[in-house]
Write a structure and sequence with these properties.
It is a single chain. By secondary structure, the chain is an all-alpha fold. It has one domain. 86% of the residues lie in helices and 0% in strands. It has eight helices and no strands. It is globular and about 55 Å long. The protein starts with a helix and ends with a helix.
Length: 222
């Protein structure tokens, strides 16, 4: 399973490195979201800094939807989805590989967004370990849910609108916990973020486990 996951993740990441869709489209989109929120709230950094954690994760959320749609748009061309299904690869490995590739792309994006939050909103990046841990756990949860629902929606004509409707309610706990952890870190009290990190870890393990178990039947049904 892990070998198959590495193969699928490597395939998706190589396609991304060649096409540079995340670099040329998703990245600028995420930065534009930060800029638009900054313009909406005004130039006062006393207002922007407290809201920076929530705005950061909203940008990550919207970027995740684009990354998932891109990941499954690749499989829809030239019946590649059927080829992947008939390849003999472990369905759980396919799920883990696609989720891992999406998570890797998001983590690179989040590094750039973190710099953007510091420069645009004047946020002080305190509690670096909490920031990194919450990004890691939150990204795994988002990628797992996005990949799972991507399997469900990819075979439908309305996948561009169906995916957000399925995705957003389920990842709400992840966004809430990640935002709370970031708020504690940016406020200079990272020690109070422990419970939120535990929630993030629980949901990441839960979503990955559900996706690993259910991916086989969903891939066949799709």
């Amino acid at each position: 399973m892990l070998r198959d996951a590495a193969l699928v993740a490597g395939k998706d990441l190589r396609i991304e490195m060649r096409s540079r869709v995340a670099l040329n489209q998703v990245g600028p989109f995420a930065i534009a979201v930060l800029l638009l929120f900054g313009l909406a709230l005004g130039p006062d950094r006393a207002v922007l800094a407290p809201a920076s954690a929530g705005l950061f994760w909203v940008a990550v959320l919207l970027s995740t939807i684009l990354a998932v749609q891109r990941s499954y748009a690749i499989e829809s061309a030239d019946a590649a989805r059927d080829g992947l299904r008939l390849s003999g690869l472990d369905p759980a490995g396919i799920f883990l590989g696609k989720a891992g590739a999406i998570a890797a792309e998001l983590l690179v994006l989040e590094a750039g967004l973190t710099v953007g939050v510091a420069l645009l909103y004047g946020a002080h990046l305190n509690g670096a370990l909490v920031l990194i841990a919450s990004c890691a756990a939150g990204t795994l949860g988002l990628a797992a849910v996005g990949t799972l629902y991507g399997v469900v929606a990819s075979g439908l004509r309305t996948r561009e609108t169906l995916l957000p409707l399925l995705f957003l309610p389920v990842v709400a706990p992840v966004l809430l916990a990640a935002t709370k952890a970031w708020n504690e870190a940016l406020a200079g009290t990272p020690g109070r973020a422990g419970s939120w990190l535990e929630i993030l870890a629980v949901f990441a393990v839960l979503y990955i486990s559900i996706g690993t178990v259910a991916s086989g039947s969903l891939l066949e049904d799709g």
